[in-house]
Write a structure and sequence with these properties.
Number of strands: 10
Number of helices: 22
CATH class of the largest domain: Mainly Alpha
Shape: elongated
Number of domains: 2
Strand order of the largest sheet: 6-7-8-3-9-10
Structural class: alpha/beta
Largest sheet: 6 strands, mixed
Length: 610
């Protein structure tokens, strides 16, 4: 139970006021329930004409409290019946029973409804916490975890926590209150009979708990919003590189907050209606019983029937009432460990360590003036420990274009990922203008860089928002100018809704070349001094490649460019070409020099020329 209370402290604190409201409503519900059943006794006595004893008013404190209370209650009923007759008294008592039941069921509904905002709020807070943690974790964490498993933890496990733990919280507040009040009433009526009942009650309650079922109604509208939430999670996991490179964590968090807020609102309404079902059905059932009781009582009074058992019936009614909260209490004890198992899976993400940390006193990187320098860099991924890069030494001067080529899996993309600190080196260092990049703030480091990847990452949003992604306050004129530089303006204007056209999931409504030019326009708008191109034209056809290459040449103008390329024809004019093989730099130089050298680069060139 220690883990359970720890979880409550983490998530329930902002919703403490709802707990107080629930306790108050449950106390009132129990009180009204007991008093409503108390009215059954005089009703039955009137029906079966059992009033032979005479009652007189006893001053309070003149005798045993139970004796005075019962005597004065029957004295009042007897006086009223003497003045108005048994039929009117019966109808009045039945009406009071309906009123008390209405008050009881209203409080019962209120005790459940007041917990709904807390339950839905905790779930929203938990999902936001996981989502923001995902945005903050390094890319290396996700190379060790399956994306589907992460989504399952955010979806199924959070849902399990809601139904098992926060659902049980309602039962843990409500049921002890009901049990205490009902047992107190049973003891007040007959402590001997209650003691006898308590010997057999636990076994009976256990059997009823085994037989009972927990039915849950699903809402189609809530499922649609749930699908939207999971779609955005999947987009985030697939687009973390772009989100981090364009410093858009805040933007994505706000988008997710909007979706989960809408889902919380919908779930609140659905759960409130679900909570209303039980008290309404109980209230209507009680009304039906009262109607039947009045009609049958009228016939019995006319026939002068006599049955001496109203107090026992009242006792049995209260005994029956205590069964359900005991059963629910035992159900909560079963559900809590089940929910805690899901909480442990969630905590694996929440407690994950981020090894990409800013040093104390990290500095702002305000500009790029000299060069990027790799010095004896070694790197291996944590997952398998296999050495990816070994002894990398490389200078990338400002304003120059440096191309990195080599076979797939040789470490080209890993070299580039080390510059914005998507990963940290194992040994050696990477510096900008002579300062180790680990001494800079991550935001200021990544703000100097723009990325265009082989697989353009677009989000299910408008073309305008995809181009303006990560750039706060971008104007329409700036977006259009960036699109023109990227050779994208013409095809955008051919769309019916222009820049407000939705690109679909991952840009599925656009061609590969169009998606890539949108991605280039996004980098143009950011206007970074350092440009990283990761095989930006490798997946395009010849016509699209020509349009994209023209856009890239405009983008690369007067910038420091690091280009990973498979097609050597696209990097012939690079200031320096770095040839990487199995994590080492094996050749370097300009295109013509490397061809004349007749080594690994010449081999790659001849293979593509065939």
């Amino acid at each position: 139970m220690k883990a359970f209370w720890s979880m409550l402290r983490r998530y329930v604190r902002p919703y403490r006021k709802y707990l107080g409201g629930s306790v108050l409503m449950n106390v009132l519900s129990a009180v009204f329930n007991i008093f409503s059943f108390t009215l059954i006794i005089p009703v039955l006595k009137i029906i079966f004409q059992m009033e032979e004893a005479s009652y007189r008013f006893m001053p309070w404190g003149s005798g045993d409290f139970k004796e005075v209370l019962v005597n004065n209650f029957y004295w009042f009923v007897a006086q009223y019946m003497e003045n108005h007759g048994p039929i009117v008294t019966l109808l009045v008592l039945a009406g009071l029973l309906i009123v008390m039941t209405a008050l009881k069921t209203s409080c019962y509904f209120g005790s459940t409804a007041v917990m709904v905002p807390m339950r839905t709020g905790i779930v929203k807070d938990m999902r936001m916490q996981i989502y923001n943690k995902i945005l903050g974790l390094p890319l290396g964490f996700f190379s060790q975890e399956r994306k589907g498993d992460i989504i399952a933890r955010m979806s199924g496990d959070v849902q399990e926590v809601e139904s098992s733990i926060t659902g049980s919280l309602d039962m843990l507040i409500k049921n002890p209150i009901l049990i205490v009040f009902y047992l107190g009433t049973l003891i007040f009526i007959s402590w001997k009979l209650t003691l006898f009942v308590l010997v057999f009650a636990p076994l009976m309650m256990w059997l009823m708990g085994v037989i009972g079922r927990n039915l849950k109604k699903k809402s189609a509208e809530a499922q649609v919003l749930w699908s939207d939430t999971m779609s955005q999670v999947e987009e985030t996991l697939g687009g973390l590189r772009v989100i981090k490179a364009f410093l858009a964590e805040k933007t994505m968090s706000q988008r997710f907050d909007k979706v989960t807020g809408a889902m919380r609102h919908k779930n609140t309404r659905v759960a409130t209606r679900q909570a209303l079902a039980h008290p309404v059905s109980e209230f209507l059932g009680t009304m039906m019983i009262c109607i039947v009781l009045c009609f049958g009582g009228f016939l019995i009074i006319k026939d002068e029937s006599f049955i001496d058992a109203p107090t026992f019936i009242f006792y049995m009614v209260i005994l029956y009432s205590v069964i359900q909260p005991i059963k629910d209490f035992s159900k909560a004890a079963y559900n809590i460990p089940k929910g805690l198992a899901s909480m442990e899976r969630i905590d694996k993400i929440l407690n994950a360590q981020n090894n990409i940390k800013e040093s104390e006193g990290a500095k702002d990187l305000t500009g790029f003036n000299d060069a990027i320098r790799f010095t004896d860099v070694d790197f291996s991924y944590e997952k398998d420990g296999r050495q990816i890069l070994t002894g990398i030494n490389l200078d990338i001067p400002k304003g120059k274009t440096v191309a990195i080529v080599g076979a797939s899996g040789g470490g080209k993309s890993t070299m580039v990922d080390l510059i914005p600190r998507f990963y940290d080196v194992d040994s050696g260092s990477i510096s900008i203008d002579g300062t180790d990049i680990r001494e800079f703030k991550l935001d200021s480091l990544r703000s100097l860089m723009g990325n265009v990847n082989q697989e353009p990452i677009l989000f299910n949003d408008t073309i305008f928002n995809n181009i303006a992604f990560g750039v706060e306050g971008a104007t329409e004129e700036e977006v259009i100018e960036a699109a023109k530089i990227a050779n994208a303006h013409e095809f955008i204007m051919e769309k019916e809704e222009g820049y407000q056209t939705n690109v679909g999931d991952r840009g599925c409504k656009l061609s590969g070349g169009q998606r890539q030019r949108i991605s280039i326009a996004r980098a143009v708008l950011k206007n970074p001094p350092i440009l990283i191109l990761d095989e930006a034209t490798a997946a395009l056809d010849t016509e699209s490649e020509r349009a994209v290459q023209e856009a890239l040449e405009r983008l690369m103008s007067n910038r420091t460019t690091i280009a990973i390329a498979h097609r050597l024809s696209t990097i012939k004019d690079a200031d320096e070409i770095i040839v990487v093989d199995e994590g080492r730099i094996v050749e370097r130089g300009r295109h013509d020099d490397l061809i004349a050298l007749g080594g690994y680069y010449r081999k790659l060139h001849d293979m593509q020329a065939l």
